[in-house]
Design a protein that fits this description.
It holds the Pfam family RlmL_1st. GO terms for molecular function: RNA binding; rRNA (guanine-N2-)-methyltransferase activity; rRNA (guanine-N7-)-methyltransferase activity. InterPro entries: DNA_methylase_N6_adenine_CS, RlmKL-like_Mtase, RlmL_1st, SAM-dependent_MTases_sf, THUMP_dom, tRNA_guanine-N2-MTase. The protein is α/β, with parallel strands linked by helices. The chain has two domains: 146 residues, VC0802-like (2-Layer Sandwich); 190 residues, Rossmann fold. Helix content is 31%, strand content 27%. The protein has an eight-stranded mixed beta sheet with strand order 2-3-1-4-8-7-5-6.
Length: 368
């Protein structure tokens, strides 16, 4: 079976590695996507265990098109017998410049599907489909497949407190992987907000499958779904998890956010392994007694919350405090205020362009 997984733009290689480690046979990377092969069991396994994927698509067809007519022809060449007596919806992600929008692409593919049935046509149901046909159109590239995930995996479903500038869980996991944290040394997020980074770090260290927080998966409605195989994968994943305690620290300057982060960590069942405290990350006293070797953070960008002058001061004071207190530590930081960071005298060992939602941002790996 051929698959396409969608992921964070800029973290495709990390997602590809994760898929390979879980048994996928890697084919190639695309922008925001990973292509690979595998068996049905892999659908359950990846949906349950992957930390950096958004949607896992069972590919039906790939092609090249520069018009809606050509997209129709590509879509029409698929055998849709599996949709007989089912309700379906087509959803599209479109990237690039086209003289048609994603709704028109969805409608075109939907028409091709209906036209391939002479009798007993499946019903279109955009609200509550049995099967979602997912199309990804980038420039002239067209990928059409079955969404086995449903709603994106980055929505973990443990958040009970919504931080106004929360980081995507999948980006948080990518950053933790970039840091190469070995789970043994002290890990710190000094500006943790609603706690996404320390919570994902704890889930990763405990090997807890993030899929267990989900209410549902789209694959459960597919005809080949085998309840026993799925239960086996779930049991195996849970058996491989642990309840050990790790040295994870998290600060924020806001009482409200620390309280929210604590609620989120309780909801994710990892409160016992995260040490939350109300501290100012720009003061060197805050790091006393915390020998953090891995620091992963998502500081304010100055776009949504504060102004750029304040951000300059914050970043400068933060790095000065770290240089004084945690020399030798590895820092992984995401920011959309990269000009501010690049004006500071910092040696970074790796930089990546990523997309945080619609916002262009960069992830830096720094040795302090
Ligand atoms: C972009 S948010 C972090 C969001 C978080 N990653 C999440 O997913 O919820 C940045 C956080 O930095 C905190 N912050 C700003 N200045 C700080 C400082 N000097 N010390 C500690 N935290 C600070 C803010 O209160 C805010 O919660």
């Amino acid at each position: 079976m051929k698959f396409m997984a969608t992921t964070v733009k800029g973290l495709e290689d990390i997602a590809g590695k994760e898929i390979e480690e879980l048994g996928g046979c890697f084919l190639r990377l695309g922008s925001e996507r990973v292509f690979f092969e595998g068996n049905i069991e892999l659908i359950y396994k990846l949906n349950l265990r992957c930390r950096c994927l958004h949607k896992l698509i069972l590919l039906l067809i790939e092609g090249k098109a520069t018009s809606l007519k050509e997209i129709y022809e590509i879509a029409k060449s698929v055998d849709y017998n599996f949709l007989k007596n089912k309700k379906f919806a087509v959803r599209t992600t479109r990237v690039g410049s086209h003289n048609y929008n994603s709704c028109q692409i969805s409608a075109t593919i939907g028409q091709a599907i209906l036209d391939s049935f002479s009798l007993e046509k499946p019903k279109v149901d955009l609200e509550n489909p049995d099967i979602e046909i997912f199309s990804y159109v980038k420039d002239d590239e067209v990928n059409i497949g079955i969404n086995t995930t449903g709603e994106s995996m980055h929505k973990r479903n443990y958040r009970v407190y919504d931080h106004p500038a929360a980081l995507r869980t999948t980006i948080a996991c990518g950053m933790i992987k970039i840091s190469n944290w070995n789970f043994k040394e002290v890990f710190l997020d000094p500006m943790c907000g609603g706690g996404t980074i320390p919570i994902e770090a704890a889930l990763m260290a405990r090997n807890i499958p993030p899929g267990i927080f989900r209410k549902d998966f789209a694959f459960k409605k597919l005809s080949f779904f085998d309840e026993n195989s799925y239960k086996n994968e779930l049991e195996k994943a849970l058996k491989e998890s642990n309840n050990n305690l790790f040295n994870i620290y998290a600060f924020d300057i806001s009482k409200k956010h620390i309280e929210g982060a604590i609620l989120n960590s309780k909801s994710a069942n990892v409160y016992d392994t995260i040490n939350f405290s109300l501290r100012d990350a720009t003061r060197k006293e805050s790091y006393k007694g915390i020998d953090a070797k891995y620091i992963v953070l998502n500081p304010p960008y100055g776009i949504r919350q504060s102004r750029i002058k304040i951000i300059e001061k914050l970043y400068r004071e933060f790095f000065n405090a770290l240089k004084n207190s945690l020399c030798g530590a590895t820092i992984v930081l995401i920011t959309a205020a990269y000009k501010v960071l690049e004006n500071l005298d910092i040696n970074y060992i790796e930089v990546r362009d990523v997309k945080h939602g619609d916002l262009p941002a960069k992830i830096y790996k720094i040795n302090i």
